[in-house]
Automatic annotation (TrEMBL):
The keyword Transmembrane helix applies. It comes from the Bacteria. Residues 1-30 are annotated as: Disordered. This is Uncharacterized protein. Coiled coil: none annotated. Residues 19-30 have a biased composition (Polar residues). Keywords: Membrane, Transmembrane, Transmembrane helix. The chain crosses the membrane at residues 65-91, 130-151, 163-183, 189-213, 233-258, 278-297, 304-322, 342-360, 372-393, 413-433. InterPro entries: DUF6350. Pfam families: DUF6350 (PF19877). The keyword Transmembrane helix applies.
Amino acid sequence: MAPPGTAARDRCRDDTPGEPQSRSGGTVSGTIEAMSTLLDATAARPRQARPARTPSRQPPLRTQLLVGAVAALRAAAFALLPLAVVVLVGWAGAGGDGGSSAGDALRVTVYAWLLGHGVDLSLAHGTLRLSPLGLTAFPLASLVVAATAAVRACGVRTPRQAGPVLGALTTAYAVLTTAAAVATRGSAATPSVAGAVLGGLVLAAVGGTVGALRVLRRRPRALPTMPREPGLVLAGAVGALATVLGAAGLLLAASLALHAPEAAASVRSLHPGPLGTLLLSGLSVLLLPNAVVFAAAYAVGPGFAVGAGTSVAPSGVVLGPLPDLPLLAALPSAGPAPTLSLLVLAGPALAGAVAGAVVARRAPAGLGPDRAAGLAALSGVGGGLVLGLLSLLAGGGAGDRTLAHVGPSAVQVGLAASGELALVAAAVAWLLVHRARSAGAAEPTSPA
């Protein structure tokens, strides 16, 4: 065994001045010479440029337009398919009564699809101008899904890049609705061609925009940041509108529950059979969104009509002859409005309070009570105007006689809702912000 310190002395001896050694046993100078030779050889060879990493590019414009047009076809097909299944099942269950054929059933399918776009149908006994909002949900949802897939397939990263594909989708979809209206014109029903053009353009533009936003909101910095104050107004308006519609939905549900025996009796009076009962129930479900908007108009004050010279409002109920439909059984009897239904009048006040609370809670620290009240009032006006627009979409008419005018007045509902929501929202926001500032000023400061 070597005495202690021998290994250390050996290492020190290796590190003594002299010819330095490399780790591989060679000298350091030899290593430097080898590296120099390698560098010279590398410099002598022509350097091949490494391919630059390019960001994902969009396909050519022609491809984007084609993708948008195909997306429009997909949206129309996916919306028509469930409607065709329901209509064909009803036609088959009826055994083709009246000499109707499968082609006639498909024609009815197209009529229903066009009704979902707000297209008027001229019938033998009048014009059908009432579009079930539940029916509108089919093409709108199909357009959103198709637009989302098309925008994602084209690699869209900014709103401007989405222009070609959305333009092609909107144009192609409007062409489809127009062609459907022209192709199905006949003696039984005549769709409005102008309504088909307008309805196709509007619905495709809305669905396409929503689909594009679904993609762009997941891209970092793809969408501009909304300024703080417009964001407060938008949040308050959404809260107010949701509260009004929620209260209206509760009123409708309570009325349907109280009048369930009358609704069942109206169904039995039609003798529809099992399949007819199923189809009648489906029609009632499609009309439920319209009924919720009608109930919201009742809560706001103007109410709604279910025929010429009729009115269903908190001030009183005036009714005429009505068809036997389950949803109409939920209407109150003629005379003074039921006391229970008057509870829904608190809905607009609650909605305004929600709008004011949303604005006050999200307001920045430096926002004064007066400014908060102004923003809350704007949110109430916004919610009221949207409710007026929904009233316009939910109303209409069915024929030229009993149900020539159905639904609320969009102007009256919009004005009444805007005023009620704005006043309550402004008061609540002012109080909450003022209280918060007073509480902050009253807090004792800690000693230095």
